[in-house]
């Protein structure tokens, strides 16, 4: 004779609803972070130090990118092969300029610098 064992799992629907609602609230708060950061950048201030020691600051950086087509045209074949795998690599370009075998004026033809401002939040160590 064969016996069958059944297991019963009790799910608390109220807890499940609250958990999912909390996830929705958190997700919406994270989506609103972009709007809050845009509003903070619009203030035109550099930083704010909060009462708990948290610092919210505008951090400005320059990001560079290489126009691969322009790089191929600007560089000799040997230099292009030296500076690229499939694409020209920024670190290898920087080394070539530092070493003196590649002129910065050539690099400027195919390097694009984009200024990026982001909001940085630094909480104090506890």
Gist of the model:
This protein has helices at 13-42, 68-74, 77-83, 90-99, 104-110, and strands at 47-49, 55-66, 111-122.
Characterize the structure shown.
- The chain is an alpha+beta fold.
- It folds into 2 domains: 11-44; 59-126, no CATH class.
- It is built from 5 helices and 3 strands, in the order αββααααβ.
- It has a 3-stranded antiparallel β-sheet.
- α2 (68-74) runs antiparallel to α5 (104-110).
- It is flat.
Question: Oligomeric status of the shown chains?
Answer: single chain
List the uncertain runs.
none
Mean pLDDT: 83
Largest sheet: 3 strands, antiparallel
**What's the total number of strands?**
3
Shape: flat
Number of domains: 2
Termini, distance in Å? 65 Å
Q: How large is the radius of gyration?
A: 27 Å
Give, in spatial order, the strands making up the sheet with the most strands.
Answer: 1-2-3
**Secondary-structure content class:** alpha+beta
Name its key features.
126 residues, alpha+beta, 2 domains, three-stranded antiparallel β-sheet, flat
SSE arrangement:
Elements: H1 13-42, E1 47-49, E2 55-66, H2 68-74, H3 77-83, H4 90-99, H5 104-110, E3 111-122
Antiparallel strand pairs: 1-2, 2-3
Helix pairs in contact: 2-5
């Amino acid at each position: 004779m064969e016996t069958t064992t059944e297991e019963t799992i009790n799910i608390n629907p109220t807890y499940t609803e609250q958990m999912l609602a909390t996830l929705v609230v958190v997700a919406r708060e994270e989506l609103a972070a972009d709007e809050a950061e845009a509003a903070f950048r619009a203030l035109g201030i550099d930083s704010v130090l909060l009462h708990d020691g948290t610092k919210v600051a505008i951090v400005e950086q320059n990001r560079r990118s290489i126009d691969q087509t322009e790089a191929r045209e600007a560089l000799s074949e040997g230099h292009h092969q030296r500076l690229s795998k499939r694409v020209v690599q920024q670190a290898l370009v920087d080394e070539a300029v530092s070493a003196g075998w590649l002129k910065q004026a050539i690099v400027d033809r195919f390097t694009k610098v984009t200024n990026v401002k982001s909001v940085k939040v630094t909480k104090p160590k506890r």
